[in-house]
Amino acid sequence: MKAIALFSGGLDSTLAAKLIIDQGIEVIACNINTGFGSTKDRLAHMKNMCEQIGAEFRSVDIRDEYIREVLFTPKYGYGKNFNPCIDCHAKMFEVAKRVMEEWGASFLISGEVLGQRPMSQNSESLQKVLNLSNCEGLLLRPLSAKALTPTIPETEGWVDREKLENINGRNRERQMELAEQFGLKDYEAPGGGCLLTDENFSNKIRDFIAHDTFSVEDIPTLKYGRQLRLPEGAKLIIGRNAEDNAVLEAIENSKFIHIRTELVGPHAMLSRTATDNDKTLAAKLVLAYCKAGFEGEQTLMFGDEELTAVSDLSRNDAQKYFI
Ligand code: SF4
């Protein structure tokens, strides 16, 4: 008997998987990559949690499908920011059901807790997710199972319902007790949760789609650097630190050109369709973020094209273009 666990690396999804593993069932912990979640740290954390509970870790990339089918057209709308949580959950279960069949598993589990998140984890929302994803009966939520309708794995006797939990609400005491009982270590997930719940990131997406069509290759261009929208519509991205600069430098995206200079300064990117005025402004703004100690006209490379500009703007001037 094999089950697929929807896995985020958080304590709840870890405990849900462990409760099923302890019933002698093989669990594959499946993290679904929407493009807006896991950082490198979180990936390492998920693998660590899986090692501790004896689950196999796998990740499934649905970024393209997510952008096409969920992000901009959620049937149940958005949460506080750009987070289409109900449709997103449903998509994850739909994908999990697909891999369940491919990987020869018999049912799905998730770490959802009834009443934990007032909007997305009340019983009505949990049911909507089942309806949307077509997983009715196959999805077991071990942490709240006793408060929910029995699922196929319970009625068929694959899982002993009596050994599952009856957690309801936001109090985390029972989860802490279970973590202690299972001897889990370092279970606090590092930052890097879902970016769609972040107000600033949501504004960046809104700005992007107001000017261009959005696709998978555009995701990294929203995650790194200072983001500026110039008066004639071009987008300028200026690295904030060595990490940003390294990531931006490596991005290959047909909508952008790279801006390079011999000076000590940030890596930057600009919309390929930028007008001459926006290009000149971009050059001045990039120079404003270069280390002082130069004078007069400076030459920058905009892709293969040379552009000469005078550094007469300050970092304060840049702020009015921030998204
Ligand atoms: S928080 Fe993000 S990943 Fe989680 S359900 Fe909502 S949109 Fe999906």
From TrEMBL:
Residue stretches making up the NFACT protein RNA binding domain = 225-321
Query: Gene3D superfamilies from the entry?
Result: HUPs (3.40.50.620)
InterPro entries named in the record: NFACT-R_2 (IPR059101), Rossmann-like_a/b/a_fold (IPR014729)
- Pfam families xref list: NFACT-R_2 (PF18297), tRNA_Me_trans (PF03054)
Q: What top-level branch of life does the organism fall under?
A: Bacteria
Q: Which SUPFAM superfamilies match?
A: Adenine nucleotide alpha hydrolases-like (SSF52402)
Q: Which PANTHER family match?
A: THIL AANH DOMAIN-CONTAINING PROTEIN, TRNA 5-METHYLAMINOMETHYL-2-THIOURIDYLATE -METHYLTRANSFERASE
Protein name as annotated: Queuosine synthesis
